[in-house]
TrEMBL record:
<feature type="domain" description="Putative peptidase">
    <location>
        <begin position="9"/>
        <end position="242"/>
    </location>
</feature>
<keyword id="KW-0732">Signal</keyword>
<dbReference type="InterPro" id="IPR029482">
    <property type="entry name" value="HRXXH"/>
</dbReference>
<dbReference type="GO" id="GO:0005178">
    <property type="term" value="F:integrin binding"/>
</dbReference>
<dbReference type="InterPro" id="IPR024079">
    <property type="entry name" value="MetalloPept_cat_dom_sf"/>
</dbReference>
<dbReference type="GO" id="GO:0009277">
    <property type="term" value="C:fungal-type cell wall"/>
</dbReference>
<feature type="signal peptide">
    <location>
        <begin position="1"/>
        <end position="16"/>
    </location>
</feature>
<dbReference type="Pfam" id="PF13933">
    <property type="entry name" value="HRXXH"/>
</dbReference>
<dbReference type="GO" id="GO:0008237">
    <property type="term" value="F:metallopeptidase activity"/>
</dbReference>
<dbReference type="InterPro" id="IPR039124">
    <property type="entry name" value="PRA1-like"/>
</dbReference>
<dbReference type="GO" id="GO:0008270">
    <property type="term" value="F:zinc ion binding"/>
</dbReference>
<dbReference type="GO" id="GO:0005576">
    <property type="term" value="C:extracellular region"/>
</dbReference>
<protein>
    <submittedName>
        <fullName>Zincin</fullName>
    </submittedName>
</protein>
<dbReference type="GO" id="GO:0009986">
    <property type="term" value="C:cell surface"/>
</dbReference>
Length: 315
């Protein structure tokens, strides 16, 4: 009896206690999102004024559009696409898809675009340098020089003003130029997407020969993205690939020198002019004269190199 009373007494005390004192809520720390810390916006340095920042940001949006379409083209057609085979041969498509998806969908924290010329390359070369990767000075940074804001075209003008993929510069457009600049930075190129073959003819010849570098050649990825976008989107079923077959020594695209960094030369005099704006801005020049290459090489700025076809590429 005493035991029963004791139990009842204890229960009465417990029952009389406020509910909030008796209820101990189950606590669990919220897990961080799987992508915590992701950077989804392009990073533009404060040294770029409002107009420059807008142009760079718009150009990067076009770069994403260009890369995304290139990826989707390959996802749809694989290595059966004639455009794919032109630039990558019969190589498996996984590497190409990945290269474009890094740009279209990858984290954007590893790339900074700036306009303040910290390495002093833009100011001394106002008509020849449109920008450069900072290399060992800052591997995740690219400088956009004032010249870029004068000569780059929007992607909507692809195939206009005499442009064709084969003969015109790869970097006429903001989209393709910034694609090239992104691949220089380890976050996107991963020290794997590099320059291997030189110029359109070199790229397509390497692909035809089955080069293992074709699917991670920076220039080839640019050419492919431009041609696929032109063929699928801009002029459906036609595009603007340029002439096929072997070109004559004097063949060139009808594009103003001030807006294209391509320079087609067939004589020593024309080659000497490749030290001007048109040839120095990361381009695919086509030269058939040995003297042309020598003349160009003797005048290239620091941080630039000459490809086998005479093109000068500045990082």
């Amino acid at each position: 009896m005493k035991f029963t009373l004791s139990v009842l007494s204890t229960l009465a005390v417990v029952s009389a206690a406020p509910i909030e004192d008796r209820a101990v809520p189950f606590q669990q720390a919220a897990a961080a999102p799987w992508n915590a810390g992701a950077v989804n916006d392009w990073q533009i340095h404060p040294s770029c004024n409002a107009s420059q920042a807008l142009q760079i940001r718009t150009g990067l949006e076009e770069t994403v559009k260009l890369a995304a379409h290139a990826k989707n083209h390959v996802l749809r057609w694989g290595n059966e696409s004639a455009i794919y085979r032109k630039y990558f041969g019969n190589s498996p498509s996984a590497e190409v898809i990945g290269a474009f998806d890094l740009v279209a969908s990858g984290d954007r924290g590893g790339a900074l675009f700036r306009c303040d010329d910290p390495d002093g390359n833009c100011a001394p070369n106002p008509t020849t340098w449109a920008g450069h990767w900072r290399g060992n000075n800052a591997t995740g940074e690219t400088v956009i020089c004032p010249l870029s804001f004068q000569i780059r075209r929007p992607l909507v003008s692809l195939c206009g003003l005499g442009y064709n993929v084969r003969q015109s510069s790869r970097v006429v457009y903001w989209a393709s130029d910034l694609l090239h600049r992104l691949y220089h930075m380890p976050a996107f190129g991963q020290n794997y997407i590099e320059h291997y073959a030189s110029g359109y003819d070199g790229i397509t010849a390497a692909a035809a020969a089955g080069s293992s570098n074709s699917t991670h050649d920076s220039d080839g990825l640019q050419y492919f993205a431009l041609e696929a976008y032109a063929y699928d989107v801009v002029v459906p079923g036609v595009g603007c690939p340029g002439p096929s077959g072997k070109l004559g020594a004097t063949s060139s695209a009808a594009a103003p020198a001030a807006t294209s960094s391509a320079a087609s030369t067939s004589s020593g005099a024309a080659a000497a002019a490749t030290t001007s704006r048109a040839a120095t801005i990361s381009t695919a020049a086509t030269s058939t004269a040995t003297a042309a290459t020598a003349a160009t090489t003797s005048a290239i700025p620091a941080n630039c190199h000459t490809h086998a076809d005479g093109a000068i590429h500045c990082v």
